Inverse folding.
């Protein structure tokens, strides 16, 4: 018993040290500032026109800026423009699935598998497929009529285009101050890395949404997003750390969001809060993921709910987001255990290979 207690103490101490570890960062302050502009300028225009709902959709497209790598200018712009196309496509599919509730879960599974495969095949770095899936998920829970679909897609496309322009001017400026990183070689496109992992991630993201629907959670867009954020860890330990950081960060972030939503917010203060939160998140995320989640939580709540704030009790909204996060993290942890289990990979992978033509197996 003494040996087991000592081992438990050692594990807890290691986990505590991991929670308190702050990573070094050489990220220039201009990048968080540009990220805040990419999401904030559409909101400023929406506030000016008194159409915050339009501004929020365009601000979602502004998240494309976060895919700007540290490579030469030509590679940066190719990456950001390809990411903009993917964001528009995912959001469009999500919007269309809103009108066919039975296809909402299969659509999200398809989107997750496809964008995860593309991100892994082309070596797209952090945040990977996260924001593409988030766009599809938010689109699926956006209340609208059929004739509004082109308008909403156009708004997101304009936000993504603005993000591409900001990425260009930011890159042109920052490359005068520092040398770009070399373009990394594409990863080896093995079956396990590109196909197997992507399919499993998609299945568990779909399972997270299916559970949310079975539990009749209202606007459960955050459940599959939380699942994806956790399951993408490179190892089981990374998955566990991600889950712990996300749960603790979300818990504190919900308290922050609660206090923020109790303030008499108008369209201008919402815009300022979004820009400030985006700046803090981009500054902190490379240093400590859990700390960044504290500010990601109110930012995403504002991004998805700002247009309807005041139409329901704040406590109910905060409680719903907490349950969404817990459910998504638990499903993500279960998926991470399966993905990183050698026996599970051998059994399921063997069956999956039979469904894939030999020339695609890798």
């Amino acid at each position: 018993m003494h040996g087991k207690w000592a081992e438990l103490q050692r594990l807890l101490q290691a986990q505590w040290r991991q929670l308190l570890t702050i990573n070094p960062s050489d990220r220039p302050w201009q990048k968080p500032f540009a990220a805040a502009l990419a999401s904030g300028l559409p909101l400023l225009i929406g506030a000016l026109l008194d159409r915050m709902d339009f501004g929020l959709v365009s601000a979602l497209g502004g998240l494309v800026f976060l895919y700007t790598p540290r490579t030469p200018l030509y590679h940066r712009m190719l990456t950001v423009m390809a990411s903009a196309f993917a964001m528009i496509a995912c959001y469009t599919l999500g919007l269309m699935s809103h009108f066919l509730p039975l296809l909402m879960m299969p659509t999200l599974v398809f989107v997750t598998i496809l964008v995860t495969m593309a991100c892994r095949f082309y070596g797209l770095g952090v945040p990977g497929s996260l924001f593409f899936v988030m766009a599809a998920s938010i689109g699926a829970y956006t209340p609208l009529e059929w004739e509004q679909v082109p308008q909403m897609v156009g708004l997101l496309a304009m936000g993504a285009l603005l993000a591409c322009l900001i990425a260009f001017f930011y890159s042109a400026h920052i490359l005068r101050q520092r040398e770009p990183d070399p373009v990394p070689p594409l990863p080896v496109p093995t079956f396990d890395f590109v196909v197997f992992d992507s399919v499993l991630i998609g299945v568990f993201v779909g399972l997270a949404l299916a559970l949310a629907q079975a539990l009749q959670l209202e606007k459960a867009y955050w459940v599959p997003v939380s699942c994806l954020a956790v399951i993408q860890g490179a190892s089981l330990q990374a998955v566990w750390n991600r889950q712990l950081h996300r749960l603790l960060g979300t818990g504190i972030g919900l308290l922050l969001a609660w206090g923020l939503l109790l303030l008499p917010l108008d369209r201008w203060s919402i815009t300022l809060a979004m820009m400030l939160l985006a700046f803090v998140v981009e500054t902190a995320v490379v240093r400590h993921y859990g700390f960044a989640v504290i500010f990601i939580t109110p930012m995403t709540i504002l991004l998805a709910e700002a247009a309807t704030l005041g139409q329901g009790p704040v406590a109910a909204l905060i409680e719903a987001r907490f349950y969404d996060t817990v459910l998504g993290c638990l499903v993500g942890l279960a998926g991470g255990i399966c993905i990183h289990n050698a026996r599970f990979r051998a059994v399921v992978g063997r069956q999956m290979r039979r469904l894939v033509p030999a020339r695609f197996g890798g």
Q: What stands out?
A: Residues 29-177+187-360 form one domain. The chain has a mean pLDDT of 86. The longest helix spans residues 149-174.
